[in-house]
Write a structure and sequence with these properties.
The complex is a heterodimer of chains A (about 260) and B (about 325). Chain A has helices spanning about 40-45, 70-75, 90-95, 115-125, 140-155, 170-185, 200-205, 230-235, 240-255; strands at about 1-10, 15-25, 30-35, 55-60, 60-65, 75-80, 160-165, 190-195, 210-215, 215-220. Chain A is α/β, with parallel strands linked by helices and about 260 residues long. Chain B has a single domain, classed as ABC transporter involved in vitamin B12 uptake, BtuC (Orthogonal Bundle). Helices cover about 80% and strands about 0% of the residues of chain B. Chain B has helices at about 1-25, 30-40, 45-80, 90-105, 110-140, 145-170, 170-185, 190-210, 210-220, 220-225, 230-255, 260-270, 275-300, 310-325. The interface of A and B includes residues 72 and 103 of A.
Chain lengths: ~260, ~325
Amino acid sequence: MLEVKNLSCGYGGENVVKGVTFTLPENGRLAVLGPNGCGKTTLLRGMTGFLPAAGSVALDGAELLKMTPRERGRAVAELPQAGSAWFAYTVLETVLMGRYAHLKPGLFSAPSREDRAIAEKAIRRLGLWEERDRPLTRLSGGQLQRVLLARAFAQTPRIILLDEPTNHLDLKYQVELVRELKTWSAQPGHAALGVFHDLDLALDFATLVLLMDGGRAVYFGSAEDLPPDALSRVFGLDVPAYMRQSRARWEKIGG
Amino acid sequence: MRKAAGRWALLAAFAAASVLLAVGAGSVPIPPGKLVAALLGAGEENTRALVVGLRLPRVALAFLTGAALAVGGIVMQSVLENPLASPFGLGVSAGAGLGATVVLVTGLSAGALGAVLLPAAGFAGAVVTTLLVLALTRALDRRMSAVTVVLIGMVASLFFSAVMDLMAAMSPEYAQRIGLWQMGSFASRGWRGPAVLAPVLAVCLAVFLSRAGQLDLLTFGDEQARSMGAEPRRNRRFLILTVVVLTGAAVAFSGIIGFVDLIAPHVARRLFGASHRRALPAGALLGGSFMVLCDLAARTLCAPREIPIGAVTALLGAPFFLWIFFAGRERR
């Protein structure tokens, strides 16, 4: 469904991502892994053309890098890193903004009854109906991130891109967010791609893994076949040994 | 939704009441009956001349200036993703002040020419300064991030204010006029100001309202706005320039009047929500009414002397702003 070929991009003419190639099939969930500064977030920014990029990002043959912002907005939604809100839009208003790319182009355009119905459905889906009139500035970080996910759903995209969407969130919200994304990705025509810092959460989310180091892909393939030695090399740490220790700790606690 | 309609009716009534009160009050109070008659073109000749020739243009200029500053503040805050941003912070006020100072110290402000030249120079100063700020921002940060814009604007404001102070110090005979201009005033300017400002405000407000959806998206920052299908970089430049034209025009006729561009947006958002479709018109009405009432205080409290309007808005505005900003905010 999504084919990324030889994508290079960076800041100020210097490539941080150097010729990355991978494919994401329908209903696939790809986790991008790698140490700090390996180009994970830059890759996302290059895929959407937020940074000038060379190469090709094709969604069912249509070049994403050549789309107008509105066209791209109908194809791809993004869930940003968890942050805080500065302006007191209500939950419903915020989710309705997801419909922007679908509005009739031109001045004074406003959401239609159908847009409203789609936004309300997304709000119910994420269990935010009771909160729909609350301002964002009064939500917790976890709730805010749910609202932004509802906004991404309301955008009715083919693909959702995630940039460490669960950082700083309580464990409960992390798990819930991944669960919602799995359900969404399983629907026809959908796929998701996310940058993750937490390996455990990444493997819970992903069917596919793209392991990056120094701006290049060192592994791309199914999450199950992820080679442990590559993981250890890239992160400069015996990752399997760390995970075993972690498991042993939990068994001691009696989990 | 009936509650919302009630709020709008209250706001409209408040705006109308403040205008009528300001036109009626003054050294020669005009009772409501005579006032309405004069406004309708009837009644005594003297009253009509006072109302239509003196009071009404002053109140109209105050209202339009307050509305323009409030609308400019709302848009600037959204475009820079910062609830504390304002056109003045971008160098608009310092630039306008510098432009006016140049005209004042060169003695060009005397006579009929000065009546046109002073506002024109204020406007030009505002626009040129902001263009400089934007160009410098672009040179230093190609992505034109909001933080850089705010930072450069602050530095430019301080720099141009210093140049203005220097010029004032070197021409002591004009220092008082420069100082007064910096505090703002709506005194006896006739219908010329309102006649220019009204269409500028109407066009700019229409520009902003027609892009209300985009403005909503921009408050979430470049990356999110873009991911939803907006074009933040191009839009931001255009919107900032429109704000500069609007605030430059407002400042040109009345001088620098602070705080309205901060208070009115916050009150408007608090009462009518953050959505620009509502916040913009609400901010315009609130900013206009607030300015009219402040001007009423400026000319009546110490009558026959006038207090500079900028001093009134700051005296009322500073504590009020603290309150509105911190009240209703969750403690963290």
